[in-house]
Amino acid sequence: MSTAVSPDAFVLPSSALRGLGTRPFGVYVHVPFCATRCGYCDFNTYTAGELGTAASPGSWLEGLRRELDLAAGMLGTPPAADTVFVGGGTPSLLGADRLAAVLEAVRRSFGLADDAEVTTESNPESTSPEFFAGLREAGYTRVSLGMQSAAPHVLRILDRVHTPGRPVAAAREARAAGFEHVNLDLIYGTPGERSEDLRESLDAVLAAGVDHVSAYALIVEDGTALARRVRRGELPAPDDDVLAARYEQLDAALSSAGLHWYEVSNWAASEQARCRHNLGYWLGGDWWGAGPGAHSHVGGVRWWNVKHPARYASVLAGGEVPVAGHEVLTDTDRHLERVMLELRLAEGLPLTALGPGGVREARAAAAEGLLTGDGLAEGRAVLTDRGRLLADAVVRRLVS
């Protein structure tokens, strides 16, 4: 049930706080700043020209500190954060010193578990050896770098501002600074991308020596510059058959190199290399999302912050939480989300999470080659290689 609320009216019910700390608990920090706007991106981000004097990294950081302090109070005795993920936007635009201040704010308000995973996203063009050294000194344990493609013409279509070789160099710099866990992001299926372009990108990823890769099919989001170009006929829409072929190509290359899928869009070299923060999302954990437009979830209650950085800072300066709206998930909502998210994992979904109809559909899907027979015999719904390509359709069957 969705309910809009004024910022000063939001209170977490005691039922949501019950069990807090027994589930994974993470903190997500949204950095809304970007140097330029990529044509495919519909995230809550702003360039300096769009913001003018309305907001700045300084006002954002002050607001963030206030939100985290309010969050700790609302949670009562908050658990120490198992994971922290700083995303955006372009967190690396803040520089190592401000990112250190972000982590210090989380540490002061929540505390960090002894083995906490602490990740920040970065644009390779706004990083350097000194930047990575500063992050390591501050306590970051993981870096995720936006690469998208190694092909210049693909980067141009995506409006990505970085030179093709820079992500590989940045990944090597991060590893040299002591980061054991480094991720590179890819996007596949961009109009004009050829199989040889993706092969070049995969070769570059593997040459970088990273232990994690995330790869996402291009989605043309409404309201983006890319969507307008597709609508005008300047670019073709992504083709489903091409997307499937590209996925199979990158899965084969990554698997051969020792990076194995653990979630439909994510590959890791070992269990330790998996992104624990994202696993918290997929396994129904709790997290506080801080920053403009960030989403949070605790105990079946989900809420989201006001989007504009100036409004965000203003609400917090007034001593209120910046919540724009919230929803209390019903049992049906939570069941659907569990099936949708856990089925995407390599370990799959326990059949006990399904009703009798869902179990019948799981058996039928296994007979059709969409779920593994071995998984079914062990009481789990586990996607086959073909099933990964049709994961959304399998989910719809299991919850019908």
Task: Quickly describe the structure.
With 400 residues, this protein is an alpha/beta fold. It is built from 17 helices and 15 strands.
The low-confidence parts are: 1-7
Percent helix range: 40-55%
Main β-sheet, in a few words? 9 strands, mixed
Instruction: Specify Rg, calculated over alpha carbons.
Output: 21 Å
Ends apart, CA distance between termini: 20 Å
Mean pLDDT over all positions: 94
The helix count comes to 17
> Beta fraction of the residues?
15-25%
Class by alpha and beta content: alpha/beta
Strand order, biggest sheet? 8-9-7-6-5-4-3-2-10
Subcellular location: Cytoplasm
Domain Radical SAM core: 19-260
Function: Probably acts as a heme chaperone, transferring heme to an unknown acceptor. Binds one molecule of heme per monomer, possibly covalently. Binds 1 [4Fe-4S] cluster. The cluster is coordinated with 3 cysteines and an exchangeable S-adenosyl-L-methionine.
Pfam families: Radical_SAM
